[in-house]
Specification:
Rossmann fold; alpha/beta
Length: about 325
């Protein structure tokens, strides 16, 4: 069975169906209803790079649905330090589990794992490549706020060069006909091959270094962290660090229903003064990781989400 490696693995119709499933699963994600749809199934969590939200929300999603989780744990205490290859690790975990959530520092590693595995792989980030499960929760959050995905104006800001979240998200937003503004320092522009790929799919894209001048007519402002760990040259990082610092004072003229998102963790690109504004959505966005991943797990394991959740579920 194939998993989710890039957003190309899902049609627009499938994306919308999964978002609908996720919406119905909200009471289960909140712990208000018990619905063990994945009882007896086991997910493997294979994180070869640091993670807080992705790893924990996958685990929460699986457990809220009655499933089990086995973890690779800290790479330093696994056989990886003895020189085990990714291929061998996958061969083994494949036999222990029904589905694998994976993060790896190397771009392309998730596809490599999928080619080696029998069970579906959920790509939880492959280097500077893709992060499609993040995109699903991002789309969920945008649709929750605006009631639709089509035709919105979205500013993607910060590290567009190494930020895998914006690579996957810009692809999906293009398919829903959004207008995209890429705001980044010159060194951190969206890779040219991604821009031309998006344009080949009919994208309406503008590139700028002026973040603050771009946000007033936006429906969504998606901030990202500068991905320090991906720079080969520390001086280059030092030249871009702190490039954008969105503060509440920048929000005086923005649209009333504009939302500010961030995949987190933030460093200094969103000042805490923004947290108490009506625009801040990043903590709800992080919560939505549970519900979006619940819906994805069900979909990839071939388990239907009942139309009437409250009739199907019971009390905790
Ligand atoms: N958590 C996101 C990721 O893993 C964003 C980030 O690390 O900046 O890509």
């Amino acid at each position: 069975m194939t998993g989710l490696i890039t957003m190309d693995d899902l049609t627009n119709e499938e994306i919308l169906d999964i978002l609908d499933d996720a919406e119905r699963l909200l009471p289960v994600a909140k712990g208000e209803l018990y619905l063990p749809l994945l009882q007896g199934r086991i997910m493997g969590n294979l994180f070869f790079e640091p993670s807080t939200r992705t790893r924990m929300s996958f685990e929460t999603a699986m457990k809220r649905l009655g499933g089990g989780v086995v973890n690779l744990g800290d790479v330093k205490t696994s056989s990886v330090v003895k020189g085990e290859t990714l291929y061998d690790t996958i061969q083994m975990v494949d036999g222990y589990t029904d589905i694998i959530a994976m993060r790896h520092p190397r771009q392309g590693a998730a596809q490599y794992a999928q080619d080696a595995a029998r069970v579906p792989i959920l790509n939880g980030g492959d280097g500077a490549g893709n992060h499609p499960t993040q995109t699903m929760l991002d789309l969920f959050t945008i649709r929750q706020a605006h009631g639709k995905l089509d035709g919105l104006k979205v500013v993607l800001a910060g590290d567009l060069r190494y930020g895998r979240t914006v690579h996957s998200l810009s692809h999906a937003l293009t398919r829903f006909g959004c207008e995209l503004i890429f705001a980044s320092p010159g060194l951190l522009r969206m890779p040219a091959e991604i821009v031309s790929d998006l344009q080949g799919h009919g994208a309406n894209v503008t590139e700028t270094e002026d973040l603050y001048g771009s946000i007033n007519d936006a429906d969504v402002v998606y901030m990202t962290r500068i991905q320090k760990e991906r720079f080969a040259d520390e001086d280059e990082y030092a030249r871009c660090a702190g490039a954008y610092k969105l503060h509440a004072k920048h929000l005086a003229d923005v649209k009333e229903d504009m939302i500010i998102m961030h995949p987190l963790p933030r460093v200094d690109e969103i000042h805490p003064s923004v947290d108490s504004t009506r625009h801040a959505r990043y903590f709800e966005q992080a919560f939505n990781g549970v519900v979006a991943r619940m819906a994805l797990l069900c979909r990839l394991l071939g388990v239907a989400v009942p139309a009437d959740i409250s009739a199907a579920g019971g009390a905790l």
